Amino acid sequence: MRFGVSITVNGARRKHEVEPRLLLVHYLRETLGLTGTNVGCDTSQCGACTVLLDGKAVKSCTMLAVQAEGASITTIEGLAKNGKLHPVQEAFREKHGLQCGFCTPGMVLTACHLLEKNPKPSDADIRHGLEGNLCRCTGYQNIVAAVKEAAARM
Amino acid sequence: MASKVFGSAVRRKEDPRLLTGQAKFTDDFTLPHMAHLAVVRSPYAHARVKAIRTKKAAAMDGVLGVFTGKDMKDAGFGPIPCAWVVPGSNAKTPPYPPIALDVVRYVGNAVAIVVATDRYVARDAAEAVEVDYEPLPVVVDAKKATEKGRPQLHADVPNNLAFTWTVAGGDVDAAFKAADVVVSERIVNQRLIPNAMEARAALADYRSATGEVTLWVTSQNPHIVRFLLSLDTGIPEQKIRVIAPEVGGGFGSKIPHYPEDTMVIFASKQCGCPVKWTETRSENYRGTIHGRDHIQDVEMAAKKDGTITGLRATVWANMGAYLSTASTGIPTILHGLMLSGAYDIKNIREVVHGVFTNTTPTDAYRGAGRPEATFMVERLVDLVAAKLKMDPVEIRKKNFIPPFTDGHAVATGLTYDSGNYIAALEKALQILDYKALRAKQADLRKKGEHIGVGFCTYAEICGLGPSKVAGAVGFGGGLWESAIVRFHPSGKVNVFVGISPHGQGEETTFAQIVSSELGVPVEDVEVFHGDTGQTPMGWGSYGSRSTPVGSGALMGAIVKIRDKAKIVAAHLLEASVDDVVYGDGKFSIKGAPSKAKTIQDIALMANVAWNYPAGVEPGLEASAFFDPSNFVYPFGAHAAVVRVDVETGEIRLERYVAVDDCGRVINPMIVEGQIHGGVVQGIGQALWEGAAYDDAGQLLTGTMMDYALPKADAFPTFELAMTETPTKVNPLGVKGIGETGTIASTAAVYNAVMDALAPLGVSKVDMPLTPERVWRAVRDARR
Fold first, then answer.
1. Band of the pLDDT at A115, cuts 50, 70, 90?
2. What is the pLDDT of residue B767?
């Protein structure tokens, strides 16, 4: 059994027939070939798969594609505009907020949502806001610095 | 070093692709006609496999094949080799079949594989494979596994002893007899799960017409994987191409050659299409190696004045059910040889038993052996200090090896390259404002509040290493590196290296080296790595070796380029080669700096060869190999300040000071990033992380819900500083920095917590120091 879904991804309306059990992250990665969204766990802990769904950071491994019917999604591929990095992306580079880069798409999108809600966060706000995203490389210090830098730039 | 590029915080070349989702990790590759593989894994820790029924699975729509261990064996796919067998240790290496043949020995051991056209169908079909098991008795504790009457894992390995290895120097028993004080401790350096954020994946494309295979795999060392694949798949080495594309962290867990590497190749061969396997996180917790897991009985001897005179230990190292690729070298060479730490302990003896148990195999995890050595030494130093009522800082100062630049031999037989341990500690004390901190602690204690200060003054061994030493200690490969520098006609440069970085940023640091040494802008240099079809032979990225060893090879190629460019410049400037000097990217005539050719001028002429010196080969390209004369020994002083709530057992990390010395620094931003990440991983071991098995061999910490990984909100801003003591082991004077944080921080934080609890009479709590354990220890001490 397949269901029709219509989802706007990075500004383009996409229509597909999908299995009802298809995870949103697999829809993005395999149906659409947008492999920038990564899968780091199977229990919603790591946040590597975070995308913006109608502006809110969601873990796309914890949603079915059919639940995103009618929604507008931004993945990491859709963040830079006209070849120019988003201020959060710029700040991550400036402050060395990434090493292996696997958690980075989820971190960056979570940071975007965090700054949307709280444009001038304290260190503690940032650390609390990133609790749902795991990074094994950076020790978080430069990620916190990057989010602070992005706040200053935005 | 003329250019300021060396030593400056150049922004990483790796970042733009990683920040935009354009980077390609193994699971991101899809080939035409590609199928997916799923693994059927044992739910039992020890069982005989009585029957495997595959019919139902094989009949499902989209299933291309279901295969067992026997199928792989019949097709000529052999056991996974152990690539490090330490001599003189009576080592046993029972076969590790990629899929179990008759007995499964740990939860997660592969029993069958399923290949299907779709990822979801493969998983469904794997669930439909029916296996009959006859459960066998289980042993998970390494010390118990060596006792009489315990379950035996392998027929030819009595008492489950994989090996017994001894390191000895000086006269240990005499030292203990003569000692004024002796302290002893049982330390459990608990099992950890590496948790690279990218789990493993492997994609094989076998071409029957040519017998060639390409394997994309999450590896830290694709050339080693290729070499080992040539041994266990029967495919000759020149027909195997191994590509480690973007790799999402490793921390040692992507060093081993794994069963799944051969499964996908076998499946691609059988099914006639490319086959991909992607590990789930819960599979990763069972099927990817774990780290640490030592039981250590250790004693330290000292004189009244605090001089440490001896260290004596017996260790039971849990190897898991099989010997993984580098496993036997971790608790021996990389652990036992480092027991002198930063001190001159004249008499040392340690016996290490490597033990098989019904658990996931263990191997290198960030620090790999040195954290287990450092924790042992640094904890015992504090215990001796406590017994003698000495300050932990004073006992360290008393026992440090004095500053040295030309080598210092320690009792275990190693010769450290260079060190200045006291300088690092003094710097840490200054940052801490140590005296004021102790005064504050005393005040707070009067109010019933408990803060603690803990130190770890470490020295570690990395930059692996001289190849002749590798051979002598049983490592089944070399440990040199190679590099190719290629100038294009436009003056732009490609560098090809044997190392295989996966987050450490060598694309940037190596471009900085080329830029500094040859006068090419950093943006004109691209560095390639991690593809045996494109990059030269190398032994990979682990043991903090990429920069110390890899840059040695790069410098060799750079010197060759410069020498050749001088000849071409002399020809173009109509001068003698001896009169040409190099500086700042320009080749000029001595005393006439206006007559000069840039490296770009020379690259163009060398590539077109129109006006060219006779007898000189065209092109501007050089290849070099570098085998270091010794390991490198970074060191430093870390200090933690913690606050313990003795009513709840909760620990808050208030400050963390890290002073490290990795010799000369190429990119301080990257070095600091390595320290931050390492420190957090080590603190994870002290406070939260620990893999737990029940007596039946079930992994109780089987998902990220049950295994506590460090999160952003648990840390203060770390206070970092460096000292600089160059090494003479490599041309740039650099030491590794990838593991120091992990090696140092576990002991620093643990010692801080014990310092906080000292007035309550608590001096030991097993790691991780969860609130419950701390609370219980406080309660028991109060009784």
1. very high
2. 98
pTM of the model: 0.98
Is residue B678 within 8 angstroms of chain A, CB to CB? yes
Q: Which residues of B touch A104 (CB under 8 A)?
A: 18-19
Residue of B nearest to A99 (CA): B503
3-state secondary structure of A74: strand
Give A70→chain B minimum CA distance, Å. Answer: 24
B502, B220 contact by CB (below 8 A) = yes
Please check whether residue B713 touches A, CB under 8 A: yes
Across the interface, of B21, B198, B712, the residue whose CB is closest to A40 is B198
Q: Residue A101 is nearest to which of B23, B119, B672, comparing CB atoms?
A: B23
* Distance, CA of B173 to CA of B327 (rounded, Å): 30
Q: Which chain A residues touch B23 with a CB distance below 8 Å?
A: 36, 101
Average predicted confidence (pLDDT) for chain B:
97
Q: Are the beta carbons of B439 and B642 closer than 8 angstroms?
A: no
| Superfamily classification of domain A87-153 | [2Fe-2S]-binding domain (1.10.150.120)
Predicted local distance difference test score (pLDDT) of residue B550: 98
> What confidence category does residue A1 fall into, taking pLDDT thresholds of 50, 70 and 90?
confident
B69-81 pLDDT tens trace: 999 999 999 999 9
ipTM tops 0.85: yes
pLDDT less than 70: residues of chain B = 1-3
Amino acid symbol at B135: P
Which two structure tokens, joined as six digits, stand for B429?
A: 């004390």
Instruction: Judge whether B61 is closer than 8 Å to chain A, CB to CB.
Output: no
CATH dotted code for B31-136+197-249+254-287: 3.90.1170.50
Question: Which of chain A's residues have a Cβ under 8 Å away from the Cβ of B669?
Answer: 96
Q: Please give the CATH superfamily to which domain A3-76 belongs.
A: Beta-grasp domain (3.10.20.30)
Contacts of A133 in chain B (CB under 8 A): 712
Is the CATH number 3.40.50.1110 carried by domain B291-464+630-782?
A: no
Q: What is the pLDDT of residue B783?
A: 87
- Upstream peptide bond of B465 is cis (omega within 30 degrees of 0): yes
Q: How far apart are CA B558 and CA B560, in angstroms?
A: 5
Interatomic CA distance for residues A46 and B56, integer angstroms: 35
| Residue pLDDT, tens place only, A47-57 | 999 999 999 99
For A33, which residue in chain B has the nearest alpha carbon? B28
Q: How close, in Å, is residue A54 to chain B by CA atoms? A: 20
Please name the residues between 167 and 226 in chain B that touch chain A, using a CB distance below 8 Å: 195-199
Q: How many CB atoms lie within 10 A of CB B345?
A: 27
Q: What is the pLDDT of residue B722?
A: 98
